[in-house]
Amino acid sequence: MFICFKLKYCFLLHLYSIIEIEKESKQIIKF
């Protein structure tokens, strides 16, 4: 159960980091 929660949390962090990278790359393209 706890491991599953950690995995989900890691997955969310991973998704969040991908979104942040997307935003940054879009800003660079706009710039």
How do the helices and strands line up, and which of them pair or pack?
Blueprint: H1 2-30
The structural domain count equals 1
What characterizes the major β-sheet?
none
Structural class: mainly alpha
Report low-confidence residues grouped into runs of 5 or more. Answer: none
What is the terminal-to-terminal distance?
A: 45 Å
DSSP helix fraction: over 70%
SSE arrangement, N to C: H
| Arithmetic mean pLDDT | 78
Any idea what the shape is? rod-shaped
Helical segment count: 1
Q: Whole-number radius of gyration?
A: 14 Å
Number of strands: 0
Residue fraction in strands: under 5%
Describe it.
The chain is mostly helical. It has one domain. Helix content is 94%, strand content 0%. The chain contains 1 helix and no strands. It starts with a helix and ends with a helix. The model has no long low-confidence stretch (mean pLDDT 78).
Give short descriptive properties of this protein:
mainly alpha, single chain, 1 helix, 31 residues, rod-shaped
Q: TL;DR of this structure?
A:
The chain is mainly alpha-helical and 31 residues long. The chain has 1 helix and no strands.
